[in-house]
Design a protein that fits this description.
Oligomer: single chain
Strand content: 35-45%
Helix content: 10-25%
Structural class: mainly beta
Strand order of the largest sheet: 2-9-8-4-5
Number of helices: 2
Number of strands: 20
Radius of gyration: 51 Å
Largest sheet: 5 strands, mixed
């Protein structure tokens, strides 16, 4: 059988108590075999008989020392020692007994947080008060009990709720209530746990074009097409007017083209030029067929 030296999972916490009220020290310890627990006050072994009104208990790794009605004489340093065959461990805290009182006061309040599914969550508060306030965590009005999934830890005036692995169903309103004989204080915050399906994809940018812009765009395209068609037609007409390296100017009204000089050499191009030197008049004189002479 393997052995394990004692370890304090939850150590003792110092207590400020009002004179005449109860004061409790509590610690959680583990170890194999189960350790034996002893209490000390200012270095001296402490027993229920030696400290009238004190109650000492140890069960399931939970060591408790409670004094029902404290006086100024109870103030001091209290320690708990856990021992087994593998070793020992000690935890120590202070008890301060005072006649003054102060209601609970949050010097650090809960903060709202948003996390992804599977993340670890820690909700912290710092609270003071005389006597030491009793601090409890709640979710949606239901008290949270410390467990493996939801662990409540105290370190001096710092109280923490640890969620080992958060899921969307853990989302909600969390609150802390601190109370003592002088009053009560509350702090509240929101926890949002986002599931994997809630991951927001990158938004694609869209360009919104109004109806007038679409009309203008279409009109511009038509004008460009008309202009392109006109330029193509003009280019074709100008190419047809290139004769023997000379370009004739096309006018809006029909005027006789300038007669180019007669070429010095006979070529097919010369015949075309000569043919195009006819009158541009739209009226053509049709001559009757010339009788073929009889031979």
């Amino acid at each position: 059988m393997s052995t394990q030296a004692p370890t304090f999972i939850q150590p003792l916490q110092s207590v400020v108590a009002l004179e005449g009220s109860a004061a409790t020290f509590e610690a959680q310890v583990s170890g194999t075999p189960v350790p034996e627990v002893s209490w000390f006050r200012d270095g001296q072994v402490l027993s229920a008989a030696a400290l009238p009104g004190a109650q000492i208990s140890f069960s399931d790794g939970r060591a408790v020392l409670m004094i029902s009605a404290v006086t100024a004489a109870h103030s001091g340093r209290f320690s708990v020692r856990a021992t087994n065959g593998a070793g020992q461990a000690t935890s120590t805290a202070e008890l301060l007994v005072t006649a003054e009182t102060a209601p609970p006061n949050f010097i650090q309040r809960l903060q709202s947080v948003t996390v992804r599914q599977g993340s670890q969550v820690r909700l912290d508060v710092r609270v003071t008060g005389i006597p030491t306030p009793v601090v409890k965590f709640y979710r949606e009005g239901a008290e949270i009990q410390s467990s493996a999934d939801f662990q409540i830890v105290q370190e001096g005036d710092l109280y923490s709720l640890l969620i080992a692995e958060a899921f969307p169903e853990d989302s909600g309103t969390y609150s802390v209530i601190a109370s003592n004989s002088s009053g009560r204080a509350t702090s509240t915050a929101e926890l949002l746990v986002q599931g994997e399906e809630e991951a927001v994809p990158a938004k694609k940018s869209k360009t919104v074009i109004s109806t007038s812009q679409i009309s203008q765009t279409r009109q511009t395209r038509v004008e460009k097409r008309t202009e392109a068609h006109y330029q193509t037609s003009t280019t074709a007409m100008m190419e047809m007017q290139v004769e023997g390296g000379i370009v004739t100017q096309h006018l809006a009204h029909k005027t006789p083209p300038r007669v180019p000089p007669k070429p010095t050499s006979k070529s097919p191009t010369s015949k075309v030029s000569a043919t195009r030197q006819q009158s541009p008049s739209p009226v053509r004189h049709v001559k009757g067929p010339t009788p073929t002479p009889v031979r």
